[in-house]
Specification:
Blueprint (H helix, E strand, L loop, with lengths): L9 H4 L1 E6 L12 E5 L15 H6 L1 H7 L3 E4 L3 E2 L11 E5 L6 H13 L3 E6 L9 H8 L12 E2 L22 E5 L5 E6 L14 H16 L4 E4 L17 E2 L6 E2 L17 H13 L6 E4 L6 H5 L9 E4 H5 L4 H18 L4 E3 L8 H4 L21 H16 L4 E5 L20 H5 L44 H4 L6 H14 L7 E5 L9 E6 L2 E6 L5 E3 L2 E6 L4 E2 L5 E3 L3 E7 L1 H6 L1
Parallel strand pairs: 2-3, 2-16, 3-6, 6-10, 10-13, 13-14, 14-15, 15-16
Antiparallel strand pairs: 1-17, 4-5, 7-9, 8-9, 11-12, 17-18, 18-19, 19-24, 20-23, 21-24, 22-23
Helix pairs in contact: 6-7, 12-15
Bound molecules: 1-deoxynojirimycin.
Length: 588
């Protein structure tokens, strides 16, 4: 929708263009700020260097003090950890490294007591190769019901020595691996769109569908409020298995052939059949009280195709990765925001904003690189290093931009501390399968997964009682620790806290968005300016400061300057939240 909003003072603001009207205060997930907890790296209670569920439970107060509404837990299920838990061997148990089912129950119970909702990760595209089903499939013969739960095929060539198709793994290398049959001879091939230890389930199989539904119920019965659905766009494969030899980029979801050409439609991403699965899951959730929700981790070509996952009878949210991968550029961000809101409004869903997660270079480092878009697939000591100061400044400005947008927003643990990527991890400590499967051409995602600093002067910065950490923390992280920022005006942590409080007070999550054009000095190439309810939000992405008049500043991502006649100077890479001084504006 694009109309001129009548509610705003045209003299003060010149023109406004409404792209999203305010919505009703309805289900919690429409406007929630949801904090992603990465269990390996949040807090370690037993001192083994790996985070765990009791560690998370003990630190839930951090989330309530910050002012978020919910947490999403990345996988903590029994797993050989070949892909940091996204290789699930048993969907109904907790990996002993992370605790027990009783610990999960205690976490959910305490979170609820504190007023926090809990979303858990569901990994339905693939299991671990150590899952009992896959072990049974390996032991069984070609054509057996055990093999039918996965995607087994005979190879091509006289002895079946070539893979069934030329599909490539997202982590690099081929997407098929060959098994050895019971008689010791080379046998069939199985599909794995990710690591070879992550065999794809066969979603044409009714037993697979029934099993994952039962897993949903298992966790819903334990009280979880929703699921983040891993690789939601990948479950259904084109059953004609055509060749399609393109590698999908882990970070952007873009598909490219080696010459950089757009390869055309993929035979395994975003197939129409996936939507039937989510319609069914919608029904399962609807059988429970309390507005449970599903959030899609889905990659598709257009905002409309992403929004299709959130039609009224499917999921409730889908991450807006288009926003995450958009460069720090006012024109392009405005377009991404407008397109995201328009597409989600068309299906009556909230737009779900996200800047960071456990798969991408942290925002405060990404935004300090010369190319600010999706960022590289990891950074190593020999790569160009980000400008840390500029990156942090922009990340804070980007946070205030995102948290002022109507819809729901996800924060990745450490984002509220301005934590940078670890950009100099030694290769020997890396664990990401993408590093190994690309022959180290990609550094991978370990740099954004480093354990959190809680206390500046404690061993492991308070992450673990023994000082052990599964990945080393940079020696200079003390200044990012929670206790070094708490109560310090202007710290990144306090800046997030204030933003979250104001977001709630002003009901920005269910608010409106109208672009404001024509403010003096504020060209659309340099400045994003919009209103949400009675708030004026201005993000200055240009190189020069811009002056604002007749406003009462409520919050800013960094220090502001003062000009003549009460002008407020907004420096480069800074966002302000302000209220119009309507009386003054009218008097002028
Ligand atoms: C997306 C997850 O976010 C990522 O961490 C994982 O490696 C892949 N899906 C495969 O499960």
């Amino acid at each position: 929708m694009t109309t001129t909003s009548p509610a705003l003072d045209p003299e003060a603001l010149t023109t406004t263009t409404l792209v999203h009207p305010a919505t009703a205060e309805a289900e919690w997930w429409r406007s929630a700020v949801i904090y992603q907890v990465y269990p390996r790296s949040f807090a370690d209670s037993d001192g083994d260097g790996l985070g765990d569920l009791p560690g998370i439970t003990a630190r839930l107060g951090h989330l309530t003090r910050l002012g978020v509404d919910a947490l999403w837990l990345s996988p903590f299920y029994t797993s050989p950890q070949r892909d940091a838990g996204y290789d699930v061997a048993d969907y109904r148990s907790v990996d002993p490294r992370f605790g027990t089912l009783a610990d999960a129950d205690a976490l959910i119970e305490k979170a609820h007591r504190l007023g926090l909702r809990v979303i858990v990760d569901l990994v339905p595209n693939h299991t671990s190769s150590e899952h009992a089903w896959f072990q049974a499939a390996l032991a069984a013969a070609p054509g057996s019901p055990e093999r039918a739960r996965y995607v087994f095929r005979d190879g091509k060539g006289p002895d079946g020595e070539q893979p069934p198709t030329n599909w490539r793994s997202v982590f690099g290398g081929p997407a098929w691996s060959r098994v050895t049959e019971a008689d010791g001879r080379p046998g069939q091939w199985y599909l794995h769109l990710f690591d070879a230890t992550q065999p794809d389930l066969n979603w044409e199989n009714d037993e697979v569908r029934a099993e994952l539904e039962s897993v949903l119920r298992f966790w819903l019965d334990r009280g979880v409020d929703g699921f983040r659905v891993d690789v939601a766009h990948g479950l259904v494969k084109d059953q004609s298995f055509p060749d399609w030899g393109h590698r999908t980029d882990m970070v952007s979801g873009d598909d490219e052939d080696d010459a950089g050409h757009d390869p055309g439609p993929s035979p395994y991403w975003d197939q129409p059949g996936v939507h039937d699965i989510y319609r069914r899951w919608h029904q399962v959730l609807a059988g429970y009280d309390g507005d449970r929700c599903l959030v899609a981790e889905a990659w598709a070509d257009t905002p409309e195709k992403i929004a299709a996952y959130t039609r009224p009878d499917e999921m409730q949210q889908a991450f807006n990765f288009d926003y995450l991968t958009t460069p720090w550029d006012a024109t392009r961000l405005r377009e991404a925001i407008t397109d995201g809101l328009t597409a989600s409004d068309a299906v009556g869903a909230p737009c779900t904003w996200v800047m960071s997660n456990h798969d991408v270079v942290r925002a405060s480092s990404r935004l300090g690189l010369p190319e600010t878009g999706k960022g590289p697939n990891g950074i190593g000591a020999d790569d160009p290093q980000p400008d840390a100061e500029l990156g942090l400044r922009r990340a804070r400005a980007a946070a205030l931009l995102m948290l002022a947008l109507p819809g729901s927003a996800y924060l990745y643990q450490g984002e509220e501390l301005g934590l940078p990527e670890h950009t100099t991890l030694p290769d020997e400590v890396r664990e990401d399968p993408a590093f190994f499967r690309t022959g180290a051409a990609e550094k991978g995602r370990d740099g954004c997964r480093v354990p959190l600093p809680w206390e500046a002067d404690a061993p492991a910065f308070g992450f673990s009682p023994t000082g052990a950490t599964w990945l080393p923390q940079p020696a200079d992280w003390g200044g990012f620790a929670v206790d070094a920022q708490k109560g310090v005006p202007g710290s990144t942590y306090e800046t997030y806290r204030t933003a979250l409080r104001l977001r709630r007070d002003f009901r920005l999550g269910t608010g409106s968005l109208a672009w404001v054009d024509g403010l003096p000095d504020c060209t659309a190439e340099r400045v994003l300016a919009f209103t949400n309810r009675e708030l004026l939000v201005l993000a200055n992405l240009g190189a020069e400061a811009v002056a604002l008049r007749d406003v009462e500043v409520l919050h800013a991502s960094g220090p502001l300057g003062g000009g003549l006649d009460g002008e407020v100077l907004v420096p480069h890479d800074t966002t302000v939240w302000a209220r119009l001084r309507r009386d003054d504006a009218e008097r002028d």
